[in-house]
Design goal:
Keywords: Repeat. This is Tyrosine-protein phosphatase Lar. It is built from no helices and 24 strands. With about 325 residues, it is an all-beta fold. The chain folds into 3 domains: about 100 residues, Sandwich (Immunoglobulin-like), CATH 2.60.40; about 90 residues, Immunoglobulins (Immunoglobulin-like); about 90 residues, Sandwich (Immunoglobulin-like), CATH 2.60.40.10. Strands 4, 5, 7, 8 and 9 form a 5-stranded antiparallel sheet that branches. A hairpin with a 5-residue loop joins strand 1 and strand 2. The radius of gyration is 34 Å and the shape is elongated. The N and C termini lie far apart (about 90 Å).
Length: about 325
């Protein structure tokens, strides 16, 4: 079988996951080179990973024991990595790999690699590094971070805390220790949030990293209501359109209104025009004694809401 290296690269040395590496030339009917890596991602665990290139390999035998003891334990692996569990924390173990062929012959074996299992955490971790946040919608934020520069043990979880900038109310989300990004849901549109993240190891939760500040995206407002068209005295070509202001969501503000006009008799679209976010607009340049159909929609920046519904108005003689 041709195997691919699976390493402990995700674990840093300052997480008590030091690397112990052996390069061994295996001998047999086919010469095979093995690179054996061993690290300790948790106090009672070792992770062994290796490379081996041969078309005749059937499986691998992984053996481990404390060097001071005669007793050994072993397990069969069909892939090029194996997790050894239920070990004693802060203890030195010797690990080796034997390569078995298709007909149960030994193709070779690695040298012993000695590794020390991690010690249980006795001090809380430092703050997570590089906390960042960005909007992914009108009610969601993406939050990312890096593991603490001083983890002082294996990370068992993270707590994401987001605080509403206007009301100063806070909520939290718990994620596991292998996660360094998450999506925060159920937020308010057009709202700024302050984001912090704290890490937890076996000793407890540490200081918060951050803050990162991010604002959710705009949400479409409701439609304006109570649409009305009235005539301006002395200006038959300039009716006034009034309506009740559309309701905006969250902390969004209406930034503009767009009026669309049709010739009522023929149904021909004349066009639309955008005005500031006021509740009364005077239209100009219309034909006297002509009935128009009109509707209004509100927008928050580039996010347009639904139309209010058509209303007819007739210009003066």
């Amino acid at each position: 079988m041709a195997a691919t290296l699976i390493t402990c690269a995700k674990f840093k040395q300052n997480q008590s996951c030091d690397f112990f590496v052996s390069f061994s030339q295996l001998t047999g009917r086919q010469r095979t080179v093995v690179e054996l890596n061993v690290c300790s991602p948790a106090p009672a665990k070792l992770l062994a990973a290796w490379t081996s290139e041969s078309s005749e390999i059937s499986h691998f035998e992984v053996t481990w024991s404390p060097p001071a003891e005669d007793a050994t334990r072993s397990a069969t692996a069909t892939n090029t990595s194996y997790a050894i569990d239920a070990l004693t924390p802060h203890t030195r173990y010797a690990v080796s790999v034997r390569v078995e062929g298709d007909t149960n012959q030994t193709l070779g074996f690695s040298d012993n690699v000695e590794a020390i299992t991690a010690s249980p955490a006795t001090t809380v971790p430092g703050p997570p590094a590089n906390v960042t946040a960005r909007a992914t919608g009108c009610r969601t934020l993406w939050v990312g971070w890096e593991e603490p520069d001083e983890p002082k043990g294996v990370m068992t979880g993270y707590t994401v805390i987001w605080t509403h900038a206007a009301t100063n109310t806070a909520d939290t989300l718990q994620v596991d220790g292998n996660t360094t990004a998450t999506i925060v849901l159920g937020l308010q549109p057009c709202t700024a949030y302050s984001i912090t993240v704290s890490a937890t190891n076996g000793a407890g939760s540490g200081l918060q990293g951050g803050p990162a500040i991010a604002t959710t995206e705009s949400a479409a407002p409701a439609s304006p209501a109570n649409l009305n068209v009235s005539q301006v005295d002395g200006r038959p070509d300039a009716p006034t359109v009034t309506r009740t202001k559309a309701a905006a969501l969250g902390y969004c503000n209406i930034t503009s209104n767009t009026i669309t006009r049709w010739l009522a008799a023929a149904g021909h679209l004349i066009g639309n025009k955008t005005f500031p976010a006021t509740v009364q607009v005077k239209l100009t340049g219309l034909q006297p004694a002509t009935t128009y159909s009109m509707d209004v929609s509100a927008a928050v920046h580039d996010t347009m809401g639904p139309r209010a519904g058509c209303i007819n108005g007739t210009t003066g003689e």
